[in-house]
Give the backbone structure.
Amino acid sequence: MLDRVRLAVPEGGVVAVVGPSGCGKSTLLRIVAGLLSLDGGTVRLLGDPVTGPDARVGLVFQEPRLLPWRSARENVAYPLELRGVPRAERLARADELLASVGLDGFGDARPAQLSGGMAQRVGLARALVLAPPVLLLDEPFGALDALTRDRLDAELLGLWERAGSTIVLVTHSIPEAVFLADRVVVLSPRPGRVVAEIPVALPRPRRWADLDGVESGRAAAAIRRALEESADPEAGE
Amino acid sequence: MDRRRSPLAAALAATLGLAVLGAGAVTAQDASSAPAPVPLRVGLGYIPSVQFAAFYLADAAGYYRDAGLDVTFENKIDPELITLIGQGAVDIGMGDGTSVIPARSQGIPVRYAATIYADFPSVVFAKASSGIASPADLAGRSLGIPGKFGTSWVMLQALLGSAGLTPDDLEIVLYPDFGQGAAVGADAVDSATGFANNEPVRLALTGEEVTVLRVDDIVPLPGPGLVVGDATLAAKGDALRAFVAATTRAMAEIAEDPQRGIDAAFARIPELAAEPEAQRAVLEATIAGWSNAYTEANGYGAIDPAAWGATIDFLSGLPESPVAGPVSVEDVITQDLLTVEE
Amino acid sequence: MRRDLLLTAGVGLLFLAVWQAIVLIGGYPPYILPSPFAVAGRLASAAGTGILFPHLLTTLVEIALGLALGVSTALLLGFLLARSRLADRLLSPYLVAAQATPILALAPVIVLWFGSGLLSKVLICALICFFPMVVATTVGLRSIDPRLVELARSLRATQRQLIRTIEVPAALPQILGGLKVAVTLSVVGAIVAEWAGGDRGLGVLINLARGSLFDIPLMFATLVVIAGLGVTLYLLVVLVERRLVGAPHQRS
């Protein structure tokens, strides 16, 4: 349930959406992805109104959502298969993507044989296989341990830098939001409203060490304050 | 724990006490009365029927009891009965003569001990209006049969063989539910196999003229009779002999006065009283089947070794012979239980 | 895998040894309980003299056609029931009623209507494997992870693509499980059908051996062949399962 959310994401930018559980951040993402319809208002993607799932959007879910009966390579190739790309070509492209997410050589592995982190990377590779200009990620690394998540965040940034896509990332992790985003949008508890948009002025390319610096501390503090205030309007005075 | 044990212990003690008392009572009984009757388990065909009237009469009139026998009847199908007799689980029973030969060839220790059906009861019948008057007339016609096995199949091959035919020369229609008799009546088939005292009799009762083709003059196949196991024969020979004598006595009395057979059968199987005319016809056909030239000369129950020899030869010569190994007449019959009356 | 095979073979040998021991200790004659050797010998002689093969072939044909008919209609119906709530509510009671009626009771009726030829056997066989296949198909299709369906939607898959790439593969383990049940039941169906009326087939051979020939070793040998038939069909499905779905340890 969302309430009067107005959000603009610049092309090529990274926006993180944070908020407490149930605030509707996943719902927001689904609406942009064309999987849910709006009760009121409009959503525009790259200038066009959203009427359903769009081929220009790559989606990474909370769980890897790999087809368990297919190999990693065939999973990554799936979007291409649905578009009728011939087999040899789509498998080759899948291998390229697997290499780009650091899974070179794991093409034949079945999802059951992969660790959580590796599976999520396959999911990421799949989302990227059509080279979408827009990437939507719904708490993509939330189920992983913190170290793996950090590594994957760094890789995601690397991919973004190379591809120049627009990224909207939903997350609970404030450090992750600060590390990745240009701007962090804070949603209030249900019904979700935008209570703050906090710019992150860290220079790019970013390093994990930047999180120990002053700017990231300032941004994180601002985010936390916004979350606290929206949870309990009386507090934080 | 102790409280739970004592009721059980009490129950055990009580049971033991009763058992001891019971045993004491039995021994006391034995000491005071005449020798106990010999128990005999007698196997009859699958469905209780008026055709077993002789047994029912002998039982009801006390012939078995007077002979010192305690007879219980069981209803079983033929293959089961033969095996049970061989094992000794049934002492004596009605078995197909044509089953004894294959059974013995497979090592089942059974013997034919008394002829009950002197005429081979499995026959081919048709409406007289079909124009079928002899086996040769069956060529190209349709014939209903329960299945391509058993006594009716053997009989059919013998019957057709006499006209130089095989079952392939006919259109065989299977009636696994034994509806082939009704099929003839409904003109669904030209002819069918059946039992001489059953399907053709019922067909005749509907007013039809019926032609019956028998195999007796072609191959003297032995009809159903009393079959015993080797072991039982050795152990209970006297009792069995008495049983056969009582049974053949009842057969003679029924041949003389069929009403006695009717009364005994209806008393035993009240459901039969629903169609007295039909049952009477079946019984009379059965009585007719009890005798042929040989039994008229030698008495009810008499076994004709020559007929058995011819049958063994015939069965051994069939294309898919049920006779697994060489079998002689002495292997399959015994005349020990027949009392020759002068 | 090798150890499993050895273990199975070992249990098999133990079974044969116990059987032989029972025959020896009980002193059973061959017409009551033939020894494993007697049965094996009779099996060899029946195969050698050509008695066995025509009956085996007949039963195989009945099973093959029965399975083809039963499984294909079950897949279609299962799909319909999984898709349409209405169809499910309308048809389920009849399906359950059909299943609750024992095939042993229905078989003679079917033979009465369709004659004692191949058709009635195929129908009886198809009927006996129909219900388990429908259930397996419906359950399999209904148990598909909706998150995968959402994934396919997000990738703009057409209905046909959804069925082909997500629904069928996801339901396959359940469907193959149902197929394993169906093939073993189909053997039962064929035998029951033959007993209800037939002049050839392994079921008929049992009756012949028992009732006409009094050849109990042959009856046992036929039982062994029937069991072997069931096991072979089952293993065939397991092989197909391995190829399509992967061995158990490979699946998630």
